[in-house]
Amino acid sequence: MKALQITELTGPATALQAVELPEPDPAASHPLTPGSGVVIEVHAAGVSFPEVLQTRGEYQLKPPLPFVPGSEVAGVVRSAPDDAPVRAGDRVAALCLLGGFAETAVAPAHLTFALPDALDFAQGAGLVLNSHTAYFSLVTRGRLAPNETVLVHGAAGGVGTATLQVAKGLGATTIAVVSSDAKERVAREAGADEVVRADAGWKDRVKELVPGGVDLVIDPVGGDRFTDSLRCLGEGGRLVVVGFTGGSIPEVKVNRLLLNNTEVVGAGWGAYAMAKPEVNRQIGAEIQRLIEDGFVRPLVGERFPLDRAADALALIDGRGATGKVVLDVRG
Ligand SMILES: NC(=O)c1ccc[n+]([C@@H]2O[C@H](COP(=O)([O-])OP(=O)(O)OC[C@H]3O[C@@H](n4cnc5c(N)ncnc54)[C@H](OP(=O)(O)O)[C@@H]3O)[C@@H](O)[C@H]2O)c1
């Protein structure tokens, strides 16, 4: 099968090499979930920030070189273990963690979900990681209640757009923080009720919109926005830490938490969910319901053929991506 491997940790432009590899072994133990997996004929592979980091050896998951990156795919099941929720021939979306930049991939059964007819393969390739992270951040960690107000950073990105869609589906009011006109359009398409600009006094604008403060901040960006995010919280508000695309890891002056009875909460979905099949099934069922109700529709941005994966990574690295960046693996 055709695949791309990271052969050296030299960054997005040069780390990937096209190779021919044998088909993956479904019984080969997966890094975090041993046991037999679902073999998927990959039609579309999602590209995300972690793959950019992996080309530099900067992501927490550091497989020995060379390895096939690619954490999520959509395609058709070729074979599945007897106890899997899907069968040969089913259209699926799956989190495979590694191995997605290839014509065939293997995913754990509990992270493989039937792909509803409403979604095509490109949308499926952007479904699991972002929508499950969004639900986990908003509900499991952020304790979102109906009618609460949620501020979403990086709101035109993969996690951001999914967070806006899931939050709207759960009855929240949403405010998006973005850095450009194009990203503002994407955030509105994803369901933002209000949009504020990252480079134009966003904190003051949020305070004008919600004088009492927001209930929840979902933050995949970090960096120098963090303190202003705390200032935007109302009494009892929660700030959920999801990632650090802004480049630096913020520090908290904890007196701010005491003054207004607020919380900073971490949300690390991947490692947590990987070993908990029941959690994945529950979140998967909720996401399925939100798809059926028309709220969750992964927004696909740029699409590239497999052999242009380096351009896909460069787009994300250069902060140019809107919605989900997808590789069309089979043309
Ligand atoms: N905790 C978890 O379980 C979990 C799960 C999935 C992903 N993540 C993390 O969440 C983060 C976001 O992932 P994603 O897939 O949504 O990424 P993405 O699609 O690339 O979006 C990230 C957004 O961050 C903003 N940003 C601000 N400063 C930036 C900078 N210096 N460089 C690049 N982007 C910058 C950009 O929005 P503006 O330009 O509008 O500011 C961009 O749209 C990543 O750190 C990822 O590792 C965490």
Summary keywords:
331 residues, alpha/beta, Quinone Oxidoreductase, Chain A, domain 1, Rossmann fold, 2 domains, seven-stranded mixed sheet, six-stranded parallel sheet, 11 helices, 15 strands, 29% helix, binds NADP nicotinamide-adenine-dinucleotide phosphate
Describe the structure.
This protein is of the alpha/beta class and 331 residues long. It folds into 2 domains: 2-127 and 298-328, Quinone Oxidoreductase, Chain A, domain 1 (Alpha-Beta Complex), CATH 3.90.180; 130-270, Rossmann fold (3-Layer(aba) Sandwich), CATH 3.40.50. Helix content is 29%, strand content 25%. The protein is built from 11 helices and 15 strands. The protein has helices at residues 49-54, 121-124, 128-141, 158-169, 181-189, 202-209, 226-232, 255-259, 269-274, 277-292, 309-317, and strands at 2-6, 16-20, 38-47, 72-79, 91-95, 104-107, 112-114, 149-152, 173-178, 194-197, 214-219, 233-241, 263-266, 300-305, 324-328. The strands form 3 sheets. Strands 3, 4, 5, 6, 7, 14 and 15 form a 7-stranded mixed β-sheet that branches. A 6-stranded parallel β-sheet has the order 10-9-8-11-12-13, sandwiched between helices. A two-stranded antiparallel ribbon has the order 1-2. α7 (226-232) links the parallel β11 (214-219) and β12 (233-241). The longest helix is centred in the C-terminal third of the chain and has 16 residues, at 277-292. Bound molecules: NADP nicotinamide-adenine-dinucleotide phosphate. Residues 48-50, 129, 133, 154, 156-160, 178-179, 183, 198, 220-221, 242-247, 267-270, 316, 319, 321 line the site of NADP nicotinamide-adenine-dinucleotide phosphate (NAP).
